[in-house]
Amino acid sequence: MTPDIIIHKAKDGTPRMTAHVGKGSMRNFMLMERDDITLKFSSETPVRLRLGDYVELPVGSGADRYELTKPTSGEYNIRTSGYDYEIKLDAQYWKFKRKRSDLIGRMERLPTLLKNSV
After folding, report:
1. The overall pTM is greater than 0.70
2. What are the residue boundaries of the structural domains of the chain, listed by start?
3. CA count, 13 A, side-chain hemisphere, 6
């Protein structure tokens, strides 16, 4: 999928952390349906990931920027005394498509909501 190391950057572009990509990490792509990556990695200390954090993949591997769009946190692993993460990041262009679909859905329900409120 990508090189061994992915640099995870904060919203303003400054590096937040470097993570070794774990087994099971993958890219999910289906034309006109989805484009996201799932990253699995471990950290010795908890990492605070924020909405809008992103990773950049090498050019030619699909979309080059994937953003965190849902809150996430790591799980403590007793065996390793560290934290395991499995995060899903959406292609940057895809997050706007989802927002548009949500807005259209709300607009379609608007006449029903107005009729019921009168």
Report:
1. no
2. 5-117
3. 26
CA–CA distance, 10 with 7 (Å, rounded to integer): 10
Whose tokens are 């006109």? That residue is 32
Residues 6+ apart with CB under 8 A from 55: 6, 7, 8, 9, 37, 39, 65, 66, 89
How many Å apart are CA 42 and CA 17, to the nearest integer? 12
Task: Please write the tens of the pLDDT for every residue from 19-60.
Answer: 778 888 888 888 777 888 898 988 898 988 888 888 887 766
Q: For 16, phi and psi rounded to 5 degrees?
A: -95, -45
For residue range 49-97, list pLDDT tens digits in order.
888 888 887 766 656 788 888 888 899 999 989 999 999 988 877 766 6
Q: pLDDT at position 79, please?
A: 93
Q: Label the pairing between strands 65-68 and 82-91.
A: antiparallel
